[in-house]
Amino acid sequence: MKAADTGPAGTLTVEDLSVHYGGVRAVGSIGFTVAPGESVGIIGANGAGKTSTLKALMGLVPRSGGRITLGGRDLTRVRARDMVRHGIGYVPEGRHVFSGLSVEKNLMLGAYSRPWNDGTRRRLDEVHALFPVLGEMRDRPAGALSGGQQQMLAIGRALMAGPRLLVLDEPSMGLSPKLVGSILDVLLKLREEGMSLLLVEQNAKLTFGVTSSCVVMENGEVAMTGTSAELSRDPRVREVYLGL
Asked: Which residue has the higher pLDDT, 21 or 116?
């Protein structure tokens, strides 16, 4: 799926990002990069600060400090609603589809930052090709979809703006192994097409299958970094962080 012309296609750089909730540190001065076309995972035990990191990156929770750039453009003060205009798509934990609206209207809302033209219609066709069930159920209320179908809708909605970087928070949560495999296939296809991915995911098979490198978080800090192949074989990562 070709990205829209949404600004620089350069590296996402996160520097010294920190988050506090009521004086309690959730994330402390972490940093990482996602190069164009790269797929990076953030892994760690529950409560490690993974979701807080993504929400702070997207501007959904206040940052206590840090700097975020994409292709050299400073996004630190960009509002959450405007991140999509800079080429970052977001698939939140728990899907958060608009249950009372049709599948088609949910997808169209994903393109709110783009003019509705032939390019946007083509992107809608591409989303239907990725997730045929969304085309088949286009007129149904999103709330009538199964959990797996709603996850497909959440991903499709994020893709409608043609992002250069897709940020996903727990895309396999609550899904059957078969549906997890379907999500894995879609993310691999997007990666092959050159889209950058940043993924928080508890499913180790999906994480290591999709990503080229990972950041391991512990207590709001970066504990380890490495290639996904290396970390998937690391006994400490498997036992302490992934429970394998």
From this structure: 21
Q: What is the mean pLDDT of the chain?
A: 89
For residue range 54-104, list pLDDT tens digits in order: 999 999 999 999 999 999 899 999 999 899 999 999 999 887 899 999 999
Strand order in the sheet with 88-91: 88-91, 165-169, 196-200, 39-43, 213-218, 221-227
pLDDT given for residue 14 in this prediction: 96
How far, in Å, are 9, 32, 107, 220 from residue 137 at the CA level? 33, 39, 12, 41
Domain 12-241 annotated CATH 3.40.50.1260? no
Strand, helix or coil for residue 152 = helix
**Can you tell me which residue has the tokens 């928070």?**
169
CB 3 within 8 Å of CB 195: yes
Q: In what order do the strands lie in the sheet with 73-74?
A: 24-34, 12-21, 65-70, 73-74
Q: For the chain, what are the domain ranges?
A: 12-241
Give SS3 for 203.
coil
Cβ–Cβ < 8 Å for 86, 5: no
Structure tokens at 76: 């630190």
CA distance 184 to 179: 9
Task: Report the candidate in 159, 12, 155, 13 with the shortest Cα–Cα distance to residue 84.
Answer: 159
Q: What is the pLDDT, as a whole number, of residue 1?
A: 63
